[in-house]
Amino acid sequence: MSQTLQARRLITASQIIEWPTVSISSDGTIAGIEPDSAPRTANTTLASTFFDIHTHGGAGHDVMEATPEAFSKVSSFFAGHGVGQYLPTTVTASVDKTLASLEGIAREIERASTSAWDALHARPIGIHLEGPFISHAKRGVHPPADILPPDIGLFDRFQQAAVGHIRLITIAPEVPGALDLIHHCAERGIRVSIGHTNATAQEARAGIEAGGRSTTHTFNAMRPLEHREPGVLGVALDEEALYAELICDGVHVAPELVRLWLKAKGPHHAILVTDSMAAAGMPEGEYVLGTFAVKVANGRAFAADDLDQGKHTLAGSVLTLDRAVSNLQRFTGAPLEVASRLASRNPAILLGLGDLIDGMEPGRPANINIFNEAGELERTLLHGKAVC
Ligand SMILES: [Zn+2]
Q: How far is CA 156 from CA 83, 162, 165, 185, in A?
């Protein structure tokens, strides 16, 4: 059945349309957008659904489980938080475990591109490989025994297991062999994000030169800013063309630095991610991230082994992307059109998928987030159907 939505505003890739009426065909695509036609009492804002390029799971499941059951739970949970598409993200694990996970995730990505996929579930559309080619010094919670020197042959085995679905990879550019691997990936259209890195400014610049296009959870697991050796963080903030992910939960990065990051990156190169793990959307307790144990308490996820030794190492987050968008508005005062863009259009442009994802235009799938006057997500449509 066809339907119409009327709103105060519609945010498209290039403009804001006031008082729109959006008609949606029975096949779930946008049939037309008529400006200046909604009743003047309309108070919602419509925008494209979100695209999370860094998430390990939620709703009790880790994407490395790589089963249809895990993906069904995770994808349904994400859709309930405004996400239309996402990149399931691996953490460092043994080579065998990584290969097995990549095979399973690739099967789910292929299933998600067919009509067998539940239309009310967010779709996994590529893989973010986070580790094993990272720095020991900035490994965060990634298990040290499984961290490996960058290796083109091994990467190719991973990409083969993933049936070519690795679209984004986190690499520490200062590790010997990293620049060759960055170059290898960039040449094949795989986006490289600099992260889990202790790079100096010069080493970070070499990584960009080799093809690095973004930074992974900027500020976290990264050499800190120092005014005579700005390090990778100084370069991440200063280098205009570089994209920069941020976990906007108020725990991983203080609001002052969220503001500084947004001022530095501007509305076109800042990217909101969740880095969420299995415990997102679940009661506090014990969970698994990749292959290691995580304890969740007070909205924070910590590596269980480190906790036993009295250390508090953050192990992913329990953040959802709708919350990140609302936190961003609250921390920075940025308007909804900017906050929403950081979680939809910018990641899509980084991945070279701008046309595929952010399509609030006739003929495109009606993947629409509906926000209330306070800029909070109220409802989500995927292919024209309401997600509960
Ligand atoms: Zn992560």
A: 30, 10, 12, 9
